[in-house]
Amino acid sequence: MSPLNHLWHALKRPYRLRSVYERTLGTEMEIQVVADGRTRAEAAERAALNETERLTQILNRFDPESELSRWAGTREEAIPISPDLWKVLHAADEWRGRTGGAFHPGADALGAIWKAAAEGDEFPDEAALAEIVAQLREPLWTLHPDGTATRHGTLPLGLNALAKGYVVDRAAEAAFCAHGVRAVLVNVGGDLRTLGGNGLTVAVADPFTARDDAPPLARVHVRDGALATSGGAHRGYRIGGAWYSHVLDPRTGRPVTQVPGVTVTAPDCLTTDALATALSVLDVPEGLALVNATPGAAALIVTRDGRQHASDRWPR
User: Fold this and answer.
1) Cα distances (angstroms) measured from residue 2 to each of 6, 8, 238
2) How does pLDDT run across 82-139, given as a tens digit for each residue?
3) What is the pTM of this model?
4) What contacts 10, CB < 8 A, 6 or more positions away?
5) In the chain, beta strands by DSSP E
6) Most buried residue, 126, 189, 209, 231, by CB count within 10 Å?
């Protein structure tokens, strides 16, 4: 680009586009684009939507015709899978290993047991929980170097957090690669990725209140990066008059009790989603060590006693 074109680009007033789409990835999707003109902003938005639709057809486990659903229905057979599905499965393997099983793509099987128990207002059967936990210690699949994957066992696969983060990342990157784009924000249900521009400041909500007008615990600036949150203060199971978090520890089969709120920033949304899930399960020292060992990541962990625990890179 010539110096004259650089000057024209700098002086031209950008066009700002913001759109919200319902029922995308099971929740609300917000797209913001800053570009050199309306036509370029709308082209970037279309690129993000097209990428979201393409990946949803691959990764949506609620669609029986998605690639994930069709592959998950196979047993003990090496099946060729797309590069996108392979990457998400590989990331799930990595995070399961890094967290010692605190992050687990098969944890949805535990959720089904607790949901059924809550509907009957009784605790889950101990033997049933133990059986699922034992199955979770075994691999749910094997990835092969030739791009195929073999499905093991019958436990349901819960790739929701990683899959959503992966889609948000790819959608934001597709929009940012469009010609004339200066900045992009993709936000899906509070999991967001921003590229270019000055970024944005995000308020960290108090996990102990559902009030929208409650003062935030903190504020964190996200630029050329991602943010995700996790918590069990307002979602879960009521049994015998007591409330139990929907976040379950795959290593024990039981609801977590010590960490009602987690906020994570990292260079990409897949990483923030994996960390947010794991930090809700791990004890605080283990969680902070994991975040500090993850390049570019930072986290604020809120424990049941109301204390806030910040990782080394969390802004003071």
Assistant:
1) 6, 10, 65
2) 999 999 999 999 999 999 999 999 998 998 899 998 999 999 999 999 999 999 999 9
3) 0.91
4) none
5) 15-24, 27-35, 78-80, 141-143, 148-151, 181-188, 191-196, 200-204, 218-222, 225-231, 236-239, 242-245, 261-266, 298-302, 308-310
6) 231
